[in-house]
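Subject: Sanity check before I submit

Could someone independently write out the structure tokens for this chain? I want to compare against mine line by line before I put it in a report. The sequence has 296 residues.
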Amino acid sequence: MVQHNVPFAVADHFSPLYKECFRDSPTAQGFKSASTKTTCLINEAVAPHFKKELVMKMRENPFTLVTDGSNDTDEKQPRFRRLVDAFSNPLTEVYLLFYQATLPVFTLLNLLFQRERSSIFQLHGEMTKFIKKLCAKFMKPSALQGRQVHVILYKDPLNQLPGEKLNVGFTTRATLNRLLEAGDITPQEVQLFQQAALAFLVRAVEYGINKLPLKEAHLRHTRFVDVQQRTECGVEDALYFIDRFQELLPFHGPEEQDKVCEEFLEYQLMDIPCPKIPPPLMLRSFGGVCPQSSAR
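---
Independent answer below. Compare away.
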């Protein structure tokens, strides 16, 4: 099934098919593996084995991330000419450096979403940090301090930094200044780049605020699950889940809720050792981390 990319739903037909094809086989007559069991076998047994084998090979041998290519090198082709024009333009380097400097902000949040272990208690705080990090790249600090992300006036030009003060990355700014001093680009082109960078950041913030569940109460109230954040939370966070999931958490009487409050205070006062902060991710160990960062 994996080799031929066949849908798991096909497995629902295997049991009756084998019984019909191999009527004299006790094994075939007793075969029972529909889509649910087959999915579990492939994802939980077969896939980890071959993924580990692939990672070990990638650690020891060079590999490429791009396998598709083209032998179309005719200089008269429009696509080839567009590529030549793009990579001959000095500003292309500046745009790529800006992309390189900005991408880690998105990557860190994306890695949190891809964690295998549950990290729901971190989502609200990390999503808020993500929006504020983007805003800090093009907004005045006074317009951000003490404000919730939904009330930040990030589109107001009065709250935005001038083009020359945008945080586009140190290497990006240095390259931009070098090209300008060398006469390879004009002040007008510098201004166009700064306007494009500002427009990108503003649009990224707008998209993040509109798409991320920043107002989801469920996420805000899960912080107390994290032992490192438990002292910053209140018992109302635990009571929120009791009220929301009444059938699963039947603690609705006054005495029961008083007991919950007492246990919550004990939880806050417990001497729980905080987990050590993991060392920075090194490039050499990246291959070992990849398999544990699969999306759910």
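---
OP: Matches mine. For the report I'm noting this point. Residues 35-60 form the longest helix (26 residues).
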